[in-house]
Prior knowledge:
Elements: H1 2-11, H2 15-36, H3 39-46, H4 50-56, H5 60-86, H6 93-104, H7 107-110, H8 112-123, H9 132-139, H10 141-157, H11 166-184, H12 194-212
Helix pairs in contact: 2-3, 2-5, 2-8, 3-4, 5-6, 5-9, 5-10, 6-11, 6-12, 9-10, 10-11, 11-12
Amino acid sequence: MATLQATIAIQAGPAEERGDVVRAARTVFAREGWTHTTVQAIAEEAGLEPAAVDHYFRDKEQLLLSVLLDSAASVAAALTVIAEDHLVEIDDLEADLTALGRAWLAPLATFPKHFAIVRHISAEVDRLPAGVLEMWQTAGPRQAQRELARRLQRIADAGLLDIADADHAAGRFVQLVAGSVVQRSFHGALPLADFETDALIAAGVADFIRLFGPTSAA
Length: 218
């Protein structure tokens, strides 16, 4: 009973103030990373006392999870809309997949704090709390890939792609078309020149079509 009451106490309180804490935590985690972030710094960023932060989140780990899962879900939702908008009707497979590839990279600029946290995660992976990586991957990258897979399967059903495993194909699309740009730009921290981005996307789309284009096109 005491544990249940404690959980309720953590979650209770004005939604606006809790939102301020989450936004402040996102800013501080993006700037400092997991290791160097403190509850004191988050409280100062939010303009609150540390006790107010403790009221909503029991510790820094719960704060990181809340921030990361929330922003990962937002990125996944944005990518789902992008996939739907660009794969509703295919007029030219190569051109449409190229346009999708460009749009798929848009969240790097739209969600800069999220990807700053991702960069820190890459550097601090051995120090992160247990389970953080798995929950982030499930809420973000894997969810976006599943939604992309559903839409690629519709294209395959129309005979425009030859796909045995849509989830595998979606993963390969992300890796081939967006992966090089993401890697070379350090998740958007150092944006590439347009011509370099376009060349990497074009090469990735060409590789993807060679792998998954309709058999008749081979």
